[in-house]
Amino acid sequence: MGLPDASGDLSSEVEVDAFRRLFPLRFYERHLSESIRPDGRPLGRARDTTIALGAVASADGSALAKIGSTTMLAAIKMEVMTPSMESPDEGCLAIDFHMPPICSPIVRPGRPAEAAPVVSKQLSDTISSSGMVDLKELSLVSGKAAWMAYLDIYCLDADGALFDAALLSAVSALSHLQFPVVSLNEDGRVVVVSEEDGGKPEKEPVNREKRKLTLKSIPFSLTCILHKNYILADPTAEEESIMETLVTVVLDSSSQLISLYKPGGPVLANTSVIQVSFSPLKHTL
Amino acid sequence: MAGKPGTNPTTYSPSMATGKTRPRIFKDHDVDWVRPDGRGFHQCRPAFFRTGAVNSASGSAYAEFGNTKVIVSVFGPRESKKAMMYSDIGRLNCNVSYTTFATPVRGQGSDYKEFSSMLHKALEGAIILETFPKTTVDVFALVLESGGSDLHVVISCASLALADAGILMYDLVASVSLSCLGKNLVIDPVLEEESYQDGSLTITCMPSRYEVTQLSITGEWSTPKINEGMQLCLDACSKLAMIMRSCLKEATSTSQE
Amino acid sequence: MEIDRVDGRTANQLRPLACSRNILNRAHGSASWSQGDTKVLAAVYGPKVGTKKNENPEKACIEVIWKPKTGQIGKPEKEYEMIVKRTLQSICVLTINPNTTTSVIVQVVNDDGSLLPCAINAACAALVDAGIPLKHLAVAICCCLADSGCVLLDPTKLEEQKTKAFAYLVFPNLTLSILPEGSLKVEGEPVEQAIITSVTQGAMSVDDYLHCLERGRAASAKMSAFLRRSLPPQNPSDSSRAG
């Protein structure tokens, strides 16, 4: 940090920066009282969101989602498995969320981020609660073969609202998923037909055309920070570290409540706030 | 990860006239052998670099060589771990990891432990560690997709990320690898070629100073082959470094606008 | 409206509650809390010198260690740890002992549904037992939404698995407050109406959720009364405990 320069502009800039680092809470409260955030957004505005489908060529379905600078890469790999005895006509979807050390200064190799297993559990709960994926669609031959779908989500850049971005990339990857073509071989086992030698007449593909998953309902989530009387939508990592009360609301496309997740934090008045946090979400739907 | 319009992928194939010996020394069944992606034996994959891929890091870079896609973040210089002894030069800490979907079969990434130490050794010689005493610079790499020659992409990308972070270096570090398949030398091998190779050679160097920071040779090699391979790699390295340098220049010129 | 529950309870009926304090000799505070067959033991150590990881010169730190009944700690347990930690952080006065760490160890004795609420209640009682300054108490409850749309309180494990959705709710319990009247309102609603923690699973409509909130809040009053009854100092002269 440079010394205050002779020119007045620069010195005031340095002071603002120092003030931000020394008294982050007061710095934010000054902004909030003016109904604006340090990055220039109004309180209720989410950051720009982009989705790119098919970002990973080696996967069966993939998507890259960005909310502001928070970046998530989700990819699905399909494997054939023998379904369990209890549910012979169902496949399986395994969801895992990773925070590699590249994504944030907090994560170091050998010391995984505390948030990773929590977000991972939240994601699998949300996707199973919403019922968006019918596991029966992952079945190939009842009782004999089914798809095991591994959905892995990597956080490439962590800048707040991790769950929102992760869910967005996961849902996009599922919508992009294409099943590989498979057929039964002589031993009655399911093998993947590679696309180059595809179309051999004696091996009838089990799944005739390339199929896609039908997603019943699509969950959307929004994380908000509650601080005093203010509600800040789509927080950045800095905002999350300063103001601790987070609420994540997940609604699906038919406006069902999938999850209302508020792990502690200073007390929240319920009805009004919850209803307010619904509204920007409905706006994005 | 789309590139900016107008930045066509640039290749950096060596221009050496070694082609004349090539067809003659092939065995008969080797003659019509074509590389899986249709490149010439001494032709490298198009290289694409971009700096500033990760905002929360002090410096970062993304590299894409054909199907090999890598992100490297640099953190620091920051406080060393408490357990570390005092040292009047800086420390370098490297880690390479793979995504579970990087490899064709899920969760079968190569040996990252070895890659981490190789990355460390390749970069250590180029960084001016005296400029940040008592602190640590962390270099973390994530291989998003593995398409062969992962390590040399990681090393080149890491040196670009270090430059983006403003860590002082003697020169950019460029790295190129080469596979020996039968009688042929194949530069910048893809995954399939790597699995059939008889031997491999990787050179990491600082082209402007004409210094090699790391040289690793595995498998069976004859001395003339090694010489030929080293010349090929060094030539490719200097061209790769030019691409990296132009990427850095581009990043600074766009930020100034 | 009436729905038959396996154990013959009505929809609003809680399972028998039991709470005992000061059951561990070495811990600075401890409590066991049971709701029917679900039983959780919580122990509190601290405030003690902060570990380097949790060092914070302005605030005390709370760490929660979740011990499952059997086996290794997995993702669900990590999530529980985080939720319990955040919930306890919100009720503790963290500025009194800055740069210290208070450890809360939660040992599951038996799980028969409503495990997380039971653990939060146990941890809260243990904090009181250890004499950690709290802003107010917290009462946790699980509401289960049956297929018919009825809300079942304090479900057993079987009921949790059968129903389509459930919500874990944590309410503050502050009947006695020294704060002036006005400050007890947040956005025009009394703090009594607020929730500290909410975790839901399964799809439900927004109205169903609000209905859950209402029923949960009504039941939490009963639990608050029980918690307060079981908390007054048992023997004021117990200074012989671990120091």
Describe it for me?
The complex is a heterotrimer of chains A (285), B (257) and C (243). Chain A is an alpha+beta fold and 285 residues long. Chain A has a single domain, classed as Ribosomal Protein S5, domain 2 (2-Layer Sandwich), CATH 3.30.230.70. Chain A is 27% helix and 27% strand. Chain A contains six helices and twelve strands. In chain A, strands 1, 2, 3, 4, 5 and 6 form a six-stranded mixed beta sheet that branches. Chain A has a four-stranded antiparallel beta sheet with strand order 10-9-11-12, sandwiched between helices. In chain A, a hairpin with a 7-residue loop joins strand 1 and strand 2 (61-67). In chain A, helix 1 (8-22) crosses helix 2 and helix 3 (115-130) crosses helix 4 (162-176). Residues 1-8 and 196-202 of chain A have low confidence and may be disordered. Helix content of chain B is 28%, strand content 28%. In chain B, strands 1-2-3-5-4 form a five-stranded mixed beta sheet. A four-stranded antiparallel beta sheet of chain B has the order 7-6-8-9, with helices on both faces. Chain B has helices at 22-25, 112-124, 150-164, 191-196, 223-256; strands at 47-51, 59-65, 68-79, 91-98, 135-145, 174-181, 184-187, 199-206, 211-219. Residues 1-11 and 13-31 of chain B have low confidence and may be disordered. In chain B, helix 2 crosses helix 3 (150-164). Chain C is 26% helix and 30% strand. Chain C has four helices and eleven strands, in the order ββββαβαββαββββα. Chain C has helices at residues 75-91, 115-130, 157-162, 206-229; strands at 17-21, 29-35, 38-49, 61-67, 100-110, 137-145, 151-153, 165-173, 185-186, 189-190, 197-201. Chain C is globular, with a radius of gyration of 18 Å. The interface between A and B is medium-sized, with 33 and 30 residues. Chain B: Residues 1-21 are annotated as: Disordered. Chain B: GO terms for molecular function: RNA binding. Chain B: Residues 43-167, 171-232 form the Exoribonuclease phosphorolytic domain. Chain B: It holds the Pfam family RNase_PH_C.
